[in-house]
Amino acid sequence: MASRVLVYFAFALVIAVASVNCNTEVDALIAWKNKLSDPNNVLGSWDPNSANPCTWSHVTCSDQNNVTRVDLGVARLSGPLIPELGNLTFVQYLVLFGNSINGTIPKEIGHLKNLIRLELQFNILTGSIPDSFGNLTALKFLELSNNNLTGPIPASLGNLTSLQTINLNNNSFTGTIPIEVLGLVRLAVIRVINFSNNKLDGSVHNSTSGFVTSVIQDPKA
């Protein structure tokens, strides 16, 4: 009898934890929706009274009803990213390219340790890349090109040993490429890298690694 009670208790605990996760994700996405301008109403199905976000458009969930994808490329959205997005702890794909997302990138994005693809290119983001991005150890594709980002490229990106593609071109980054990041190139971890059209010191062209398709850094003007 005692073992049966323990089984029931464990099952109830799993359900409770899953419910908390889903409600946290609903809260995070609704908080973000409330900060966005959405002229085409692409977020119309995002209902704050939902038990979870899994029936919402542009959202994909796992079998456990945790958000794994948010796909909002070229959705005519404008407004900021918010710290609450760091609560989407199961998300693997955050695809927001081709909008008018503005403001800075919250350091809380670095909490998304399951993130595989981050696409923020062709927006109007400002500020720097947070050092916390060095915690995104599952990340394979980092797309930040064609924004208004500034500051140095953080050395913490050298922690991203799963990274295959990094595009930072057409921003206003300054300083030099950290040796930690260049180390990933030399080890043929990164296969596509583009730092062109920034304000970087030095120059790196045409890596001899057969695995890297392009390594481009324009010298500082």
From TrEMBL:
Native organism: Ziziphus jujuba
Pfam family, one: LRRNT_2
Domain Leucine-rich repeat-containing N-terminal plant-type residues, every copy: 23-62
Ranges of residues in domain Disease resistance R13L4/SHOC-2-like LRR: 82-204
Signal peptide start and end residues: 1-22
UniProt key word Phosphoprotein: no
Keyword Repeat annotated: yes
InterPro entries, per database record: LRR_dom_sf, LRR_N_plant-typ, LRR_R13L4/SHOC2-like
UniProt keyword annotations, A-Z: Leucine-rich repeat, Repeat, Signal
Name of this protein: Disease resistance protein BAK6-like
